[in-house]
């Protein structure tokens, strides 16, 4: 395993064991739930929005190491950003983990580059992207549970019916 791969694995394991912003956010004015039946990942994302700015963000839930680490790192990546800025980060992240053409170079996505290898494991794309789809739903104020059940690699998660 390369030194970079080992570093990436260490970062993911650290965020899994000690997730950042793992709490129910008091004063949240937006939230959404997400579910990945493949792994059993379940997450709730809480947002405190001030206009279109994400003043604070947190999550609670359970899931595999990739899901929990992605949730943890997502909260740090979008806190203080506007909806449009958070959406832009989501798009770069999603392109990277799905391995679509035009995928940003890891240095263009900062610390989130630790998930660049996920595209090599299609079943793990849903684990890495669940928090991001749930964030998007929370920002849009949707009152539904997001599920990866109907998601194909590269497609958006769909409301759970």
CATH fold label: Sufe protein. Chain: A
Estimated structural class: alpha+beta
CATH architecture, please?
Alpha-Beta Complex
Q: Give unreliable regions as ranges.
A: 152-156
Mean pLDDT metric = 87
Number of strands: 5
Radius of gyration: 14 Å
Q: In the CATH hierarchy, what is the class? A: Alpha Beta
In order across it, which strands form the biggest sheet?
A: 3-2-1-4-5
What would the principal axes of the Cα set say about the shape?
globular
Largest sheet: 5 strands, mixed
Q: Number of folding domains?
A: 1
Range of helix content: 25-40%
Question: Span between N and C termini?
Answer: 42 Å
What does the model show?
The chain is of the alpha+beta class. It has one domain (3-154): Sufe protein. Chain: A (Alpha-Beta Complex), CATH 3.90.1010. It is 40% helix and 20% strand. The protein is built from 4 helices and 5 strands, in the order αβββαααββ. It has helices spanning 3-17, 65-78, 83-98, 122-140; strands at residues 30-36, 41-50, 53-62, 145-147, 158-159. The protein has a 5-stranded mixed β-sheet with strand order 3-2-1-4-5, covered by helices on one side. α1 crosses α2, α2 packs parallel to α4 and α3 (83-98) packs antiparallel against α4. It is globular, with a radius of gyration of 14 Å. Residues 152-156 have low confidence and may be disordered.
